[in-house]
């Protein structure tokens, strides 16, 4: 039986910035022997409300501040439970003063709520609900909604996997003990591809997570991306087992699987004899919601798809996992500005190879350009990841269907290519000015190249000693989502850096290219309009700027400065700089 605790005065530490909460009543996880004091200890929560004012008689959300506030509180609790437990869906109870209550079910696409019931007279509902919640028919030690592909390793498991990890000199030095490396470890089922007589065969494997989670999305109705550093149980006998990044994501069903883009890029490189040195690669991927694929699931596929009734694939999500290399670390931890610039240069090169293969990335951001984790500080390697929002060019789609004809039948479910390329897709602060204008333009390589420039500016304003008069507020003010005029004005002014620095000269070269790209189009039938019109950025132009800058001598003592959210922004404000990095997909 769970431990039930009054926690209305207990502050549950936020799993991200700015969302500390105090759930009213908290139920512990199964098997727990201590009172729940944090979200990782919680199985479900009960929120107490004075009035039943969230829904009207027809089940619609009431348009009142009180109703919205109550629903937001429930959503925050659901989000925290999903993040902490890795569950596929969770339940929240809302109880009201006069003996009525509602039970909510949240997943990563939507929520459902029961009709209000009087639990003081309908006395079997709560006992039945909680019994079923803690005693699902097919899972002995789990709660209903828990991910049935994740389990907790034993101490013996941890020692075995740690010994295998320590065959890598980098990780042997990084982790001083078994406990440090495996304190929060999990077993996660994944799929790795193997080649048998030229045919790709999927194999179910057990991935053991190492250290802290590498990346965790805080979105509720979102991809909810989690990235772990893992080593496979099947590889422990090897002299030096490979280390992967395991990416766990709730993909929109209307979007092409990310593995299709990785495979197309890899096949292009083989066909054209292009070296993939340093580029991200996919070694296995599985849609856990599929029950009739090339392998037999050892899990319940229905648990791994959302159930938003009456909606199309744009609203549904499928639980997907991929095994990727290399393992990365964030760009914001650069040891000096030159490695950061080198990583952006590598991004330009990798993006060009992908485009030659017929793939457009469409989501350049600070989370999608990484350093290779194991690279020495003196020889950093940057790479581009996260092709979830990528799309094929017309030529790329032809290549894909030619190279992978067995997947052609799956493509009918994805939307029209021309329409997809006109979607406004990306991470808001880094999106090109023309895309932000929403002119119905088709996404092109020059838009992503402009995004690389805005990523450089982001790094300058957050993590270097710049000279902008707004100080710590400079980044927030430039990338405020209220409009695009600030970006246009920025590209017309010198970069606020020491004018003698190499970083200044690089930024100026890229800025000029962005400025020319966003000139007003010529009026063709106006004889007095002699303006040149926009000049779109090319790969060659950006390469020249980067190569010229990197040929110079750079400082070695200008490591990234830590960024603190300016105090001028309230902790919970959605306008704070730290909250600006939100993925947007508009249709």
From TrEMBL:
Pfam families, per database record: Pkinase_fungal (PF17667)
Polar residues: compositionally biased ranges: 569-578
InterPro entries referenced in this protein's UniProt entry, alphabetically: Kinase-like_dom_sf, Pkinase_fungal
Ranges for region Disordered: 568-587
Domain Fungal-type protein kinase: 63-459
Name of the protein in question: Fungal-type protein kinase domain-containing protein
